[in-house]
Amino acid sequence: MPSSHHVEFTRLAEGIGIDAALTLVGFFDGMPTAYIPGYRRAGHILERVLGEAGFLRLIASFGGETLSMPSLNLDAERRLGAVYRGMKAGQST
């Protein structure tokens, strides 16, 4: 198997779109690497996760590569969102 290389989130998003990139990073959460197939196989798990168009963009951008997946920590944004929603509902911080 070929060696892996780190892919930055921005490069991933540029290659497959931000929604598909967020979905892919979420799907591989905690997994250090992901092999991207070099061609489309109907029913592949990544096609089911990303949809056909997203899967085809993934193959076109990274097909045949083993990627060291980026990780995103959104805990601070989630907490801020929870505080905001609570304040909109009349709760105090």
Description:
The structure is a single chain. The chain is mainly alpha-helical and about 90 residues long. It has 4 helices and 3 strands, in the order E-H-H-E-H-E-H. Strands 1-3-2 form a 3-stranded mixed sheet, with no helix packed on it. The termini are far apart. The model has no long low-confidence stretch (mean pLDDT about 90).
Write the layout of secondary structure elements.
Blueprint: E1 4-6, H1 9-16, H2 18-27, E2 33-35, H3 45-62, E3 66-68, H4 75-88
Parallel strand pairs: 1-3
Antiparallel strand pairs: 2-3
Helix pairs in contact: 1-2, 2-3
Summarize the structure.
The chain has helices at residues 9-16, 18-27, 45-62, 75-88, and strands at 4-6, 33-35, 66-68. It has 93 residues and is mainly α.
Top keywords for this entry?
10% strand, 3 strands, mainly alpha, single chain, 93 residues, 3-stranded mixed beta sheet
